[in-house]
Amino acid sequence: MPTALGTKIRNLRKDRGLSLDLLATRAEISKSYLWELENRDAANPTMDKLAKIAAQLEVTTEYLLDGGNTNPTDDVVDRAFFRKYQEQSPETKRKIQDILKIIQSSEAKKE
């Protein structure tokens, strides 16, 4: 019987169209280990592994560990995005900021 953590990982992985193999590769863990996390009741990943999985699924580690919520809230998605943003190069950050300005300008024109 899978844990709440395993169920969340599997559901998020499938929602994002990722295979076990692809998520395992991106998270730098073995496919068999990921399968065990999703399907076994004694899963106990390290925080490093959990953080890598969360980053690839675009959620926070806190969300994965919270046994209650089954769908990530907007706040969880926002925090995961901001963490990704912080890891970007200054040039990439500038491009993201420019895109946001264009979107905001477009929205202002609609009003």
Give keywords.
111 residues; mainly alpha; 434 Repressor (Amino-terminal Domain); 7 helices; DNA-binding; DNA-binding transcription factor activity
Summary of the model, kept short:
Helix content is 71%, strand content 0%.
Question: What does this molecule look like?
Answer:
Residues 9-64 form the HTH cro/C1-type domain. One of its GO terms (cellular component) is cytosol. One of its GO terms (molecular function) is DNA-binding transcription factor activity. There is one protein chain. With 111 residues, this protein is mainly α. It has a single domain (4-110), classed as Orthogonal Bundle (434 Repressor (Amino-terminal Domain)). The protein contains 7 helices and no strands. The chain has helices at residues 4-15, 20-27, 31-39, 47-57, 61-65, 74-86, 90-110. The longest helix is centred in the C-terminal third of the chain and has 21 residues, at 90-110. It is elongated. The N and C termini lie far apart (52 Å).
The number of domains is 1
Order of helix and strand elements from N to C terminus: HHHHHHH
Here the CATH topology equals: 434 Repressor (Amino-terminal Domain)
Q: CATH H level: which superfamily?
A: lambda repressor-like DNA-binding domains
Structural class: mainly alpha
**End-to-end Cα distance:** 52 Å
Helical fraction equals over 70%
Molecular shape: elongated
Oligomer state equals single chain
| Beta-strand proportion | under 5%
